[in-house]
Design a protein that fits this description.
The chain has 311 residues and is mostly helical. It is built from 17 helices and no strands. The chain starts with a helix and ends with a helix.
Length: 311
């Protein structure tokens, strides 16, 4: 996929259009043709190809067509599979749109550019010892090599600047090693897990099956295993609240209830539900992480400075 197709703003529009088309009563595969006309140009070819593939092989499961199309990310396909299984595909498209809207805010854009710059500096710093080593006897050789490495670094950083939007991307896997970012990763997961569980219950599924289906939709493997453990505990007769606490998921993130706020009209105090609390926690942590991430740029810069100081 192209860089522009990874952008959160473009993917938000794509899923908003898919959800709206379903809401309007459009059917597959025509829905892909209709959405192609109003979505960003970077998706037009893939949507048209997907529509043609469905027409040519109408008996093939829709999910298989979507997996083969160069349009959806792996984590999105997990959610789409969940939507097809629960007959809530419209709601799932809306959910995916919401995710990209949240991370596409100004703080999200700051994280994208910081991730790209970190990639450039890390790549360049990693080869700095070679560039400035005694082998580089010529100044022009050293400068030329450094410029070349910067160009390669920019190309290497492009996936970080675009692909980081997926919750199971390499960027988030590495970032989750830090407590602050790990908390953010888990907050996102818990929020979407609770929403998925709500869709299952509303659709008439029993609790045991709902927990299994929701666990399968989680894109991050170690969290998916935790949710599967919750489902297994409940199937064995344990209470869901105790099983969830025993899983250790909540211990991985900072989720606290927000202070009650006075209703604008002076009426009753508004007390948010658990899903709203988790969502607010996720957005707050996303904002903090976006402000904290630029500090990580000091790591490759510090390496470069120390090396130069020792020459």
């Amino acid at each position: 996929m192209s860089y522009s197709s990874y952008l959160a703003s473009n993917r938000a529009v794509l899923f908003a259009n898919l959800g709206q088309a379903l809401h309007n009563g459009d059917k597959f595969p025509e829905i892909f043709d209709n959405v192609a006309d109003i979505s960003p140009d970077c998706f037009a070819k893939s949507l048209a190809g997907l529509a043609n593939a469905v027409r040519e092989q109408p008996d093939k499961p829709l999910l298989e067509h979507m997996k083969e199309a160069p349009l959806f990310l792996a984590w999105e396909l997990r959610f789409i599979q969940f939507g097809l299984a629960t007959l809530k595909i419209e709601e799932v498209f809306a959910r995916l749109c919401e995710y990209y809207v949240m991370i596409g805010q100004p703080t999200g854009r700051l994280m994208r550019w910081t991730a790209g710059l970190w990639g450039i500096l890390s790549f360049t710093g990693g080869y700095l010892a070679y560039v400035l080593s005694p082998v580089s006897t010529s100044l022009w050789y050293g400068v030329g090599t450094l410029v070349l490495l910067l160009i390669v670094g920019v190309l290497a950083a492009s996936p970080a600047m675009g692909g980081w939007v997926a919750p199971d991307s390499r960027f988030w896997r590495l970032a989750a090693r830090l407590p602050q970012f790990r908390s953010l990763v888990v907050a996102r997961s818990v929020y979407q897990y609770l929403l998925n569980l709500g869709l299952c219950i509303q659709g008439g599924m029993d609790l045991s099956r709902s927990l299994k289906v929701c666990a399968k939709s989680e894109p991050i493997s170690w969290l998916r295993q935790r949710y599967q453990g919750v489902a297994a505990d409940v199937a064995n007769g344990n209470q869901i609240s105790k099983a969830f606490i025993a899983s250790g998921i909540l211990a991985e993130t900072r989720i606290t209830a927000q202070p009650k706020e006075q209703h604008p009209k002076g009426g009753k105090l508004w007390e948010p539900g658990i899903t709203d609390i988790v969502r607010q926690s996720y957005t707050d942590q996303l904002d903090f992480a976006a402000r904290f991430l630029p500090l990580l740029l000091m790591v490759p810069l510090a390496v470069i400075w120390v090396y130069l100081a020792l020459q």
